[in-house]
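WARN retry 2 of 3 for item q-0093 after timeout on previous attempt; input resubmitted unchanged.
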Amino acid sequence: MAVIVLIILVGVAYVNVDNWMPTNPATQVASFMPNGFTGVMTAVSGVFFAYIGFDALSVLSEETKDPQKNLPRGMIISLVLCTVIYIILTLVLTGMVDYRKFEGVGDPLAFIFEKSNANLPWMELTVSFVAIIAITTVLLVFQMGQPRIWYAMSRDGLMPKKFMTIHPKYNTPSYATIVTGIVVGVPILFTDKSFILDFTSIGTIFAFVLVCGGVLLLPAKEKLPGRFHMPYYNSKIIFPILFLGGLTFFYFWQPSFFQNLMDWSDPVEGEFRISMFFYIILNLGLCILAFIKNLSLIPLMGLSSCLYLLTGMTHDNWFWFGIWFGIGLVIYFSYGYRNSQIHKEMNGDLN
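OK item q-0093 returned
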């Protein structure tokens, strides 16, 4: 965090505001969003990886003092801080160097001091060194969160009991931690960086889709124990107006997109059109459900937003995600379903 703040403070003096208005090669028009709003949202789907971590706090609920109070507060504060810092850092990066020069760059933070006119070699060395150390923080997030998820699944009977093994000294899920390290570490040796980022992003976004959908299934007026309660706003009228109004605005803004929406043969836009077609269909269904079921607005907006982020994923992302999802289903139906605590309770076999 200290290095990021240092980069912002040093780099802001070398920002060239003209870099924030690059020219689109196709239209020769200077714009803050040269590839349009679609280009921005496509990039968001990929860089979503950067925000992974705030949700890992919920995994530590059993090891947190007063989790009903501290977890919601910690998740919201960390998400707001990360968002603000990332936006400021991105403005500095793209202000110092034209965004098109970042293509294929592995270390953009050191790259800006190399390619800009800052002439600060000490910053380049400092950032490169700290970046290597900072990578371990990402690994710690996975190594701390995923083993506890498997531990909880094992306790519920969805995973083998071996994943409940607790280290006698450190009181941590040791077996699950070792398996997590192997599952995460070995594939990295045979894949590239882009694949890991995209694959992680699509999995996380899909998990958020399930979370938002699960919240929608909770009774709107049921008072659950706890200090944090999500505000309820009836989406019966608001959500259909927002979605259909946005769809209408986009139609008049980009009529050619809707005219070619069913043309899936285009090698460049075909994948995005397919995704947008299903996104529109799903949201029309959500509009109907919102009107009939009086669904809560906040999780419904979250569900719609996450579904839109999924439209930026390529067919390769969906292919590998489908394989991984299929492996999960095989484990569930071959082991988890029969051994789950809920299944045993329904069949009267609590032993």
